[in-house]
Batch of 4 targets.
Target 1
Amino acid sequence: MLFPLIETIAKRLNQFSIDYMIIGGQAVLVYGEARLTKDIDITLGLGPEELDRVLACLEGTGFETLTKEAEKFVHDHKVLPLRDNNTGLRIDLIFSISPYEREALTRTRSILIGKTMVRFVSPEDLVIHKMISPRARDWEDAKGVLLKNPVLDREYIRRWLREFDQALTTDYLDTFTKLEERLK
């Protein structure tokens, strides 16, 4: 895991009182199976309208914005892509806009990295993130999290997958149910 860089980012977000959670491959390393990942995905507890606050937080950090028109890009994609100039690694700051993301931010787990408490997505929310992805790799990640964390709030997972299914006309819950059956 990219512990020193994650610690640096967490310190900065904490200093600016910006709510956040580490998601994606770095969270999979905490809750699931080890795998290669060379980026850091972070959901922020801010909407895109607070981009200026995030940019102020990043001043002097050595993080470079990877888009020339940050405001337009964030407005269109809800993500601010960055590169750490010291390591060359990519960091995606994801602006939260949905009730689901807002709830997930209240369920984070703090893990000590170096001397800093860093907020990671809960394992349940990580499973949800992975199940709503179209990539088979993400479903494998969800499987690993389920295997390593047998005592999860599966009703919480099902509730949100059901809500996504209704809102988006998808079949995430069915895919999750099939994954659970294969794990038995």
Target 2
Amino acid sequence: MGASGTPPPTPPTPLVLKTNGTLNPVQSILNLIAGQNVVLTADGSGDVTVDSPQTVLIGSDGAFFFGPGITDAGLVYGGETWNAVALNLANNAITANQVVVYLFELFDSFTISKASMLATNNAGGVYATCGIYDHLGNKVVDAGSFLASTGAGVQTNNVNGGTPVTLKPGLYWHAQAAPNTSAGATFLPGITLTSSASGIMGVFLNNSPRVAIAANPLVGGVLPATLGTLIPFTPSISHGDGVAAPLYE
């Protein structure tokens, strides 16, 4: 006891590092990997649990996103005006095999296996396709070909030829194209540019390309493995520009 009668402070309990409940042999090392997202959760008993980020398993519990990362229920159930979009139209021109891309962001991790769209025109032998590229321009999702036929009803393709893929949170490019110059390559769901959106395009695109035409074209109806150089353009309401939004699940 000190001279003033106050007991000395209790020494702090040293931090003990364990992995899965087992004492780490080297107490100065906790093997957290740089660049990996982790969640630290205190369980109330002095332990901290390290969890990996949650993965939303699409197809097993109804999770989804539309085209450029749309999951907000308010938008899906009427907040967004859904329209038919021509997948081969951009910058006031219908161009065969031209790949048009729109930047978007995913905030969760999704494992997807299917993509669905609905044709709004009947055009014999006309197909269109969509896909997703990572921010560096590498193809990660190929949604396959959709036939421009209303009689086909809702068309669903297995992505990547039947191989599901997990997309981690991050920036991606939505891609759309058609191997012809037919005006019939139109599909739902889609989002066409509105007058209010036209007003902010200058701000949206001022410092970074977020809408562009890829240098690498569609070949044989299949999206290229990489986008190549991106050629930015400003979408316009007068041109009828819009982004397709296939349902990924």
Target 3
Amino acid sequence: MPRTDDDLEQIRRAYAERLRVSGRLKSSALVEALARVPRERFLGPGPWQIVSPGAPPAGFKYTATPDANPKHLYADVLVAIDASRGLNNGQPSGLASWIDALDLRSGERVIHIGCGTGYYTAILADIVGPTGRVIAVDIDVQLAHRARTNLAGYNHVEVWYGDDVPFEPGSADAVFVNAGVTHPLPGWLDVLALGGRLLIPLTATGPDGFSTGGMFLLVRSRAGFAVRCVSGVAIYSCIGARDADLNLELWRRRGTERQVRSFRRDAHEPDTTCWLHTPNGCFSTLFLGTSA
């Protein structure tokens, strides 16, 4: 029997509801976006290469779907966007839980760093709606081109290529960095309006180039940046936001990510409350509003 649009709508709805439960998602708008956005639109024609269950983070092993039926994409699986480079569309449960932590609302302005082919950018765009704005950025020209094509129907989305994006201070309510870094860039911090949120994976990279660490949420207030570790993370590295010395420090700090409470941009001497000093500020165990 041929597949119908109604079949896919039901499959997407079931997928979204499974993620709601498994990811303990609080945002109904996020669940609705997962149920609406067609993942197949962002992954090219099938059959697709899906990462085999239990495969190690580096050196992925892929299994082809039995056919080009999009139903195979509505599971909690990594799907290749460029198998030759081991690049994948991220695992829905992880990405959904991180997006949920951003607490996005209709009309907000979002920047998505490391947008890949645009699927999760489309999820962000669906959440903030046509009165919002999403800027998607990727340093890989091929991925940025694919994302621009895939997102062409979203009038409130722009796709940019490169690592020197001219963000205006205070022009974003949320920034989602979807690649591992050792430190935040000044532009990601400065672009946030009051109440703005920066979601950033601070990671240490091993010899295989894959990086692991913690996904941190920074929230801007007049007093500074409150911080919490949302979850662990295993992710590819972000070109242009890695430092060898900080990579080593993060490697040493594995397992202590949940000690971080704030991000300080004031000048101060290192002390026992300093979890990680970066060129652009210090991740600290102090609660926001306290002093060393």
Target 4
Amino acid sequence: MEDPARNGRTGARADWEESRTSAASCQNCDLWARATQTVFGEGPVPAAVMLVGEQPGDEEDRKGAPFVGPAGRVLDQALVAAGIERTQTYVTNTVKHFRWEPRGKRRIHKKPTTQQIRACRPWLDTELRVVSPSLLVLMGATAAQAVFGSSFRLSQDRGHPLPSDLAPIVIATVHPSSILRAPDSISRDQAMASFVADLTAGAAALRAA
């Protein structure tokens, strides 16, 4: 007899593969023209934990994978400290193409527009559906406002469960890249500790659920 739970997992992965293939040729907004490639989410499908950032960075754009650059290394360290296994976590971005502006030979991150975020929302909605996380972590104001609207203030509502029908537990926290922008080592250590505390709170809520 076939295992319905297994079939559900297999179907979710097949849906994810189909969406990832379709997103590779996405031209729903203008970002595709300057980006190297679409950077879709990665990780187990389904997964208990799903992390959502803003958009790929320069290194992610070149490699075609999310959170493999400097911010990704900060995230890896924070996940270890919070007791969350990265390999068991689905990681993605609100926007799937890198928006950048030239500065000399460098490509500098530029915040995506509301229209670009809206154009990418169907991909994120598909990921949420197939990943079906128990804990959803929105990293950075762009990710949080894409879900909760432009009035959402990360400084006021970070680190504790938020009401949402997207997952049983939803929290918002800073983007790991913000830690890299801290002006000195003391500020970076404090920002990292707060980031880890937010992730730890999410992990604790998940274990208690």
